[in-house]
Amino acid sequence: MGQEKVASVLAENTVKAFTDTLIDQGFKGEVDTRYSTQVVHSTDNSIYQEIPQAVLFPKSNSDIQMALSLSERTEFSELYFGPRGGGTGTNGQSLTSGIIIDLSRHMRGILEINTEQRWVRVQAGVIKDQLNDFLRPYGFFFAPDLSTSNRATVGGMINTDASGQGSLVYGKTSDHLLALKCFLPDGFELDTQETTTKQAKESAKKDDRAGKILNTVLTSCEKNRDKILSVFPNLNRFLTGYDLKNVFSDDLTSFDLTRIIAGSEGSLAVVAEAKLNILPIEPYKTLVNINYDNFDSALRHSPFLVSAKSTSVETVDSKVLNLAREDMVWRSVSDFLETPAHITSDGLNMVEFNGSEKKGIEEKVEALTTQLDSHIANKQSGVLSYSITTNKTDILKIYAMRKKAVGLLGNSKGARKPVAFVEDTAVPPESLADFITEFRALLDSHNLTYGMFGHVDAGVLHVRPALDLCDASHQALLKPISDKVALLTKKYGGLFWGEHGKGYRSEYGPEFFGSELFLELRKIKTIFDKRNKLNPGKICTPLNNNTGLAKVNGPLRARYDALVPIYIKTSFQDTLNCNGNGLCFNYSETTQMCPSYKVTNDRRDSPKGRATLFKEWVRQQGLQGVELPELSSGYYDSNSNMPKVEISEAGVLKKLNHEVKAAMDTCLACKACASACPVKVDIPNARAYFLDLYYQKYGRSTKDHLVANIERLLPVMSKFASLLNPIIGAKFTNSLVKNVVGYQDLPLLSKHKPNALKFDFASLSKLSQQQRNQFVLIVSDPFTRFYEAELLESAIKLINKLGKQAVLLPYHPNGKTQHVKGFLKQFKATATKTSAFLQQVSTLNIPMVGLDSALVFVYEDEYRKVLSDTERGTFEVLTIHEWIQRQDLSSLELKGSSGAITLLSHCTEETNPRSSTSIWQSIFKQLGVELTAPNVGCCGMAGTFGHESKNQSASRQLYEMSWEKHVQSQVIIATGFSCRSQVKRFEGVKPKHPVEYLAAHISSVHS
Fold this sequence. Notes:
Structural class: alpha/beta
Strand content: 5-15%
CATH class of the largest domain: Alpha Beta
Helix content: 40-55%
Oligomer: single chain
CATH architecture of the largest domain: 2-Layer Sandwich
């Protein structure tokens, strides 16, 4: 056994002894040493990856203190820790090969608020948007605005001294810290707040832990005050981490140790609680969106926009704009950002004005737009057009697009992806355009493309060069480009880290601090953490410690990515392209992505978590010599004689196989991730592939076979509906099925057959095209055909009312249940047969329409993943709302319709590019009725998920979280079969589908 192996075993044994002892001592949180948890916590939103030894999820301050105190024992002296919040850092600040202390799962309490004194006290795991949702009814908000505000924690914001939009007015996180409660590496509790310098010096005389810390910091910062002021530029985005300057007030009369901890990236202490300054919400807001002929024009125009007394100026370049136009987010902002048809915008500035008086904002906006009109008329400054938005909801939509920029860049086509490593430089705003010109020339010299967005008012621009870090030649560019950008930033009087902290760029600290001041940093690190136990290598190291600083060429994620076979990357590029931006961690209950994570709050039960696990599982199988099959290969043909692939369970795979399975089991297969995620991570597709191979190794349950074959069984079962329904609906049967099979609340079968014209291909093919234009072909799906024949009947009635003749196509299984359960060979056989049938029918050139959108999407998505272009063909199946939208509704109206109607959409529909909500609203509006469509997440049913006994708690929790409050509306219509079934289960009444409502109320204006 080699020395490295011996060291690894010893470290593993030490960690186990530590965690066992911690539990014995009464640690109330969770201690997780599972490999799946380690892997999921090994990445953040950066290009780095470090697998930790364990993850602690404390539930209280005493848990944190207990863990750190225990590590002081001699036998645990080699252990080290990394505090972690939302894991949204772009420079690997929260990554460690030690033990992670994750405060995001449990420590999310808002402890106290004082509106008179304008402060709130919170635990470190509170999410930024969660806090502002809490503060909003009080009329206040916590100011620093981040693009990751819906998943970034307050603790993480403090550790990186985060800032964002509006920092010229609102500053950084450290500007709003009133007090902190922290725990030092030995478990000592340290409370900090602003005090007088005189009082601080008195406290520094005490011969205790706090006194020694105060004495060191006071001495370093006071003795070197002149040098500190001369070294660091006077920027809005001042020094991030160990803020030597701002521990003192400008007049030196007050002192605040909090400033040293803010931005220290968890290298000095574990922040547990924070007392935060809060500001009153200003009621008036206006956003002016300005389009430019190119990005350089947008940059050079920004100082003028700042001089217009704006609150903030944000920018995005053409690459981000073009990616946004291809994303579902554009649906919500196109009305505000589109330019006239003959104009192409290659740059956008968003100028915000807000305040307490409407008149004052209007005067500022009028002054700006007068100048903009002049610029447009005289073709000056590259200004092409502008729009004004005053509605707060619309403004939030535009900023949502801007905030999604990080993820959108990750969705660039090809192996090269824009990556973060030189992306938050800060220079004086007036120098930004010239700085960027040289920056771009540097990247152009390496033939690199890049995307840019950021805060031009503060001189901070996020520049992301596109690299394939699995390519050694691209890896080799990280260091030289970083070196040159650091020099360029210094040339223009700026900082290399203006917003996102140091992390693995800590190696540039000595260059910017200078040797004398960097020595002072090391003294501070030593007095806080002399044994280098907290986030070693980040920012600086203690004196007499040989540990090196974290470097740009650090532990790259590409080390693991490069070991994934190319054909697997090609088959699952949407899943394996996950860049770690973590939008799936969105705390909001009304977003569709990701239902299971909202329930468990376990990172493994998220698209990012599952994508990370899937990639690691593929990698580990490859290391064991297992050649996994291609998704679209002959291996999955039903008549294939190719040998069975047996996955390995050697090494970590013995447990990882089952841990990945557990994470996949919590997935609802709603497919929200496939559209709502900026990089379109498609977990259901990877899940089906994994399950197929997993069950070949470990065998399936009877219930899986029943579910997978339900589409084939239903035609037979429906013939005996009158006999079967009393049995299915009986309490005894439900109890038996629940306990033996694991399913409950099964739907009853429809008893009658819909009355529609019979399909006759030969007869229809003999008609002229004009005659065929009078027909509509309904594509049967298993749910509406055999469980909701009344909906099918309504669709036929509605189609006939719209002047067409409905023809019901012969039933062909869709295959979705097979795909969900991972029966890929059977799914491919179903897809091949059904696709051939629909391709033949499509030659009639008659519209084919499906009633359940989730199943319609399978023809376009899952079929294309397992079939070749020839096998899939070019047939198109429209959703029913897409077809209705194309009809002339001008002579029709809704009779007997009164009061508000609320539309609740299936999450699979709402996140698909073929969104149903806006189309249904348009249809009803043409008929004189306004549809209310609140944002809702998943109802909790999601096909078979809500029927499985093991999922009952999660299913109900999701329903109560998002849907329950909306079903009290006077009239509810819902698009999803699963959703309607869920409402009926919990409320006793089944909502109508929009088609049913229209069929019952639509009539001719003249009737």
